[in-house]
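User: Structure please.
Assistant: Input sequence and predicted structure:
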Amino acid sequence: MTPTGTPPRRGADTLTASEARRITLAAQGFSRRMPASVAPRHFHRTMDRLGVLQIDSVNVFARSHYMPMFSRLGAYPTSMLDRTFLSRTTHYVEYLAHEATFMPVDDWPLWGFRMRGWQQRISSPDEWGHVHTRTLDWVRAELRDRGPLRPADLRDDAPRERGSWWDWDDAKLALEHLWRCGEVAIAGRIGFERRYGLAEQVIPAEVRNTTIERADAVRELVRRAARSYGVATVADLNDYYRLRDQAGVRAAVDELVDSGELEPVSVRGWERGGRPLPTWRHRDAVVARRIDRAALLTPFDPVIWFRDRALRVFDLDYRIEIYVPAAKRRYGYYSLPVLVGDRIVARVDLKADRAASVLRVQSAWWEPHAVAERDAPRVAEELVRAARWQGLERLSVSGWGDASDAIAHALHGQETPVDRHEHPREVVSAI
């Protein structure tokens, strides 16, 4: 038993939907108190729970990899995360451990099967790597002679005199291909620009020289995914690390059940075609008594990044609308789901207007299970906290969205100045 929850009832094989949500949120760290002051050790503990931190370049509010730590730990200097994850470090490295993610450097061997798969792909006769062997060889030689480099460093020393084979896009592709194959690793970033080095320049030898067979790696990754989710289906476990190997995941689940690490359960409401979805609970999962937390969630937070699971667990039908034409957007450019307790109650489209020092709430919408009178103050508090984290002095709320007025009203009870503004969508609608 822990201070924040109780072990699931071992004699029972059925969970309520609420219990499943609270297991998930506890496994993801939302049942824990936020620290009074965030230190790098809190990042490490959170990474132990999450396993990976997905990277995304969209910066309309805050880049995605900054958000999960803020959601779980509260405000912290983003420069602290940069030093821990973006600078050259022995703790973390980037790889395709979901999409592009930060992961513990010790996990590098777990992805040997994916690296070997890329090596086979690019070396096939009709594939890019076979056609561009000269480019690959030149990039390898440059990294070997000069150490880790930014793509711009290669561009500045491009062998244009060698003939028509050179193309700058090919050099960038070569770096990415070699990274996927495990020959190259990311040796930190300058700003948001990657520095690429040969794996031996970045990954410790004892890690780099460890080989893990595919079946063993898949079993370990499924075990970790089950621990990070608490309760999950095969599809959930397959997606957490983007294994794309349903048969391998099923085999791993069977082995983990035999070893006692997973146990079969059913969750009320988790059904397909009127029949319960096969579901498993990790032996260390706890049902938190309650989740007393409000949090903004990035679209790439593990809690919601698998959209099928987000719909099943939180009744959140979510889609990123960055690539949707503006006139056809339902919720906004980059709306963030808002967690209050164990429910997703709203989604807000945020924009950090740094020149004006304003956090703009471009739209705000209630989710089906929201209770406006109860939830608006919690959402408002979270928006104020987000503005302060980003160093913004004011908030401004547009009129677009059925939650906008209630949230704007709740914000007036906060100490941060609040304005209203028109969203371009409102102006167009009024014409």
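The chain is about 40% helix and 20% strand.
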